[in-house]
Amino acid sequence: MGASQLDVAADFPILARPVHGRRLAYLDNGATTQKPLAVIEAERRFYLESNANIHRGVHWLSQHATELYDAARATVQRFINAAHADEIVFTRGTTEAINLVAQSWGRAELRAGDEILITTMEHHSNIVPWQLLCEQTGAVLKVVPVSEAGELDLAAFDALLNHRTQLVAITHVSNALGSINPVAELTARAHAAGAVVLVDGAQAVAHQAVDVQAIGCDFYAFSGHKLYSPTGIGALYGRRSILNAMPPWQGGGDMIRTVSFERSTYAEPPQRFEAGTPNIAGAIGLAAAIDYVREVGIERIAAHEHALLEYATAAVDAIRGVRLVGTAQHKAGILSFLVDGIHPHDLGTILDAEGVAIRAGHHCAMPLMTRFGIPGTARASLAMYNTLADIDALVAAIDKAQDLFGTRNHG
Ligand code: PMP
């Protein structure tokens, strides 16, 4: 097969660390990615040379730190092609971004009987915030089903959309199956029905070019740590006209214009939604990660991961007794599977002993597992530094697990 080798592993020092005396095949990138030296160095340099609190100081270091933080926001803006830098709110990650929308936009806009449309393949962080909002407002959650292949039922989507639908919240890429949803098309249909659209981009931004204006969505959420950045930083894109109309969701320093005991007034977005001292070093690390991804080239990364996924899919599917879960036509680099007679957790443990890091379980998508009638899956998820050798190690480790369990050739 023609898997292009990107040859970037040397930029990720942790990959050279043996695990259980084996070469590490890190295939748990859906959970979090490893960090390149450029990101680690950018964070280190910030604390060594530029650390101060932002937006407060009259002194030079504070102004310098503020410039770096503002530049990081502009880097995120360009990366997802938002029209304006003030449409980017820094958050702790996808989860916080979605909760922000639920508690600010949602509590202000939704009334009893309004509907929120999500899908069966959502991560818990694009389900539970809406359930909380429904409890608070009397709104109702509706769910688009998925097919056996793990694709959205588009006819059901259309049928569920109606004048009561205030919000459509959908994942760009399923973290459990890898299915890529046609978010631009779904956004157009949702807008035609008068609904606002939030896209969960947690599993998308590191794997394909994302253009929020081309998608047309109103909100787009993602986490830095799945994009080669530090943990504790992420972003919410919000269309300017909607963000401007949204009330604060957390109160504190930096989000106000004036405060008195009678009444406080609030800053413009994005500061309105960034109460307290933010993760300044994290934002700078995120910008460094985006610069690194741009240097490698997101299109090259997408092509590399796609070729690796095809190789892995064929190789794993060829093992007797393996069942793939999620065979959508459009997929990102995620391979979910079950091995007959071996619980995913046992499989994960045996693979770990071979130096192969995967994830086993429900992947924070319990309703999706229920849909497939399974408690969980084993999941290998790819990043730019993975190689054919990592896939070969995965396949060899599955063989070994089948030997240990005595299930080989009994598929
Ligand atoms: N949505 C999806 C699709 C995810 O894969 C994840 C992380 N597994 C999240 C949301 C939550 O991201 P975080 O934990 O970084 O907030």
Q: Supply the helix-strand structural class.
A: alpha/beta
CATH-defined superfamily of the largest domain: Type I PLP-dependent aspartate aminotransferase-like (Major domain)
Oligomer: single chain
Main β-sheet, in a few words?
7 strands, mixed
Strand order of the largest sheet: 2-8-7-6-5-3-4
Proportion of strand residues: 15-25%
Number of self-contained structural domains: 2
- Unreliable residue runs: none
Bound molecules: 4'-deoxy-4'-aminopyridoxal-5'-phosphate
Please describe what this structure looks like.
By secondary structure, the chain is α/β, with parallel strands linked by helices. It folds into 2 domains: 9-30 and 297-405, Alpha-Beta Complex (Aspartate Aminotransferase, domain 1); 39-294, Type I PLP-dependent aspartate aminotransferase-like (Major domain) (Aspartate Aminotransferase, domain 2, 3-Layer(aba) Sandwich). The chain is 39% helix and 16% strand. It is built from 13 helices and 15 strands. The chain has helices at 37-50, 60-79, 94-109, 128-137, 154-160, 183-192, 212-215, 240-245, 280-296, 298-317, 344-353, 366-372, 388-405, and strands spanning 25-26, 88-91, 115-119, 140-144, 165-171, 196-200, 219-223, 234-238, 256-259, 264-266, 322-325, 334-339, 356-357, 359-361, 377-381. It has a 7-stranded mixed sheet with strand order 2-8-7-6-5-3-4, with helices on both faces. It has a 4-stranded antiparallel sheet with strand order 11-12-15-14, covered by helices on one side. 49% of the residues are buried. The mean pLDDT is 96. Bound molecules: 4'-deoxy-4'-aminopyridoxal-5'-phosphate (PMP). 4'-deoxy-4'-aminopyridoxal-5'-phosphate is lined by residues 93-95, 123, 125-126, 171, 175, 200, 202-203, 223, 225, 364. Belongs to the class-V pyridoxal-phosphate-dependent aminotransferase family. Csd subfamily. Catalyzes the removal of elemental sulfur and selenium atoms from L-cysteine, L-cystine, L-selenocysteine, and L-selenocystine to produce L-alanine. Pfam families: Aminotran_5.
